[in-house]
Write a structure and sequence with these properties.
- By secondary structure, this protein is mainly α.
- It contains ten helices and no strands.
- Helix 1 packs antiparallel against helix 4 and helix 1 crosses helix 10.
- The longest helix has 38 residues.
- The chain is elongated.
Length: 291
């Protein structure tokens, strides 16, 4: 066991931090696996826990919340969310396991692997930031292209909305925007156009592009004719979400920089602690072997 005070501090800080991440990632992995294996039981349990009269949270859940919840536990949404949770949980669990076991067992191999993984992740983050800064116009072009492809391929209306549609509705309703660059993006949304034609209403935009009344999650336009005849007075038809998001980032640049610095500092500390502990363990073993 490393006798150096600094090494001991590094050891227990690594143990504590990685143990927390192991618990969180295990929970995420269990939920993701449950969703993938048995969607029906998860949907039933979620609805029962939140909507049942005997539930402790039932006083806070009204009819509107029940409607929203039922949309978000649609099988299509659950299926897509399950794989994301499994991938994220497994990734975090593997790295945290290396850090925890390496620190608790004082294994130089595991600590080195943990440190190398963190260095790779840190380097990828730095590379991504530099590339986005140096090639901002190209990054904007590709980002917009990706977002528009999600609209054109997956966005729909009516019943049985998937996770992409619900996510876009949530973003547009909360940010008061419409599409990536504006309402014209929905003219190339294949599923949206097909469903709108089947409706026979002459729909031009979804409800989430309109100025809403009440809870924004309910998607109730102030002017019901907005979806057919969107104007500057009843919708956000000319306000693209990409421009709105860029403006919000610029306005809150200090918070963004602060968050990036905190994440980077945490990763650097974990890297430094892992290699310091690794070095201390090596020196202690060399001392025992020598004497």
């Amino acid at each position: 066991m490393a006798a150096d005070c600094g090494a001991n501090c590094a050891r227990w800080l690594l143990c504590l931090a990685n143990f927390i991440f192991i618990c969180v990632s295990t929970g995420v992995l269990i939920v993701g696996t449950w969703l993938a294996a048995d969607k029906a039981s998860f949907v039933n349990l979620t609805l029962n826990v939140t909507i049942s009269k005997d539930s402790p949270v039932s006083p806070f859940v009204g009819e509107n919340a029940e409607k929203i919840l039922k949309e978000f536990v649609e099988p299509a949404v659950i299926e897509q969310a399950a794989y994301i949770l499994i991938a994220a949980g497994a990734f975090i669990l593997i790295i945290s396991f290396l850090g925890y076991c390496g620190a608790i067992k004082e294994s130089r191999v595991l600590l080195t692997a943990y440190g190398i993984f963190l260095i790779i992740i840190f380097a990828l983050q730095i590379a991504l930031i530099l590339l986005c800064t140096l090639y901002k116009s190209q990054a904007d072009h590709h980002s917009k292209g990706f977002l528009k492809s999600t609209l054109s391929k997956y966005y729909t209306t009516g019943d049985n909305k998937d996770a992409v549609t619900l996510s876009w509705d949530l973003i547009m309703a909360q940010m008061s925007c419409c599409g990536v660059d504006g309402y014209e993006d929905f003219r190339t949304a294949r599923l949206f156009v097909e469903k709108s034609s089947a409706e026979g209403l002459g729909r031009q935009v979804p409800e989430s592009c309109c100025i809403l009344t009440g809870d924004s999650l309910l998607l109730k336009p102030v002017d019901p004719s907005c979806i057919i005849s969107p104007t500057q007075s009843n919708s956000y038809l000319s306000t693209g979400c990409y421009t709105k998001f860029s403006f919000m980032v610029t306005e809150n640049l200090n918070l963004v920089i602060g968050a990036v610095v905190v994440v980077a500092a945490t990763q650097l500390l974990a890297i430094i602690f892992s290699f310091c502990l690794c070095r201390a363990v090596g020196q202690e073993r060399d001392y025992y072997y020598k004497y």
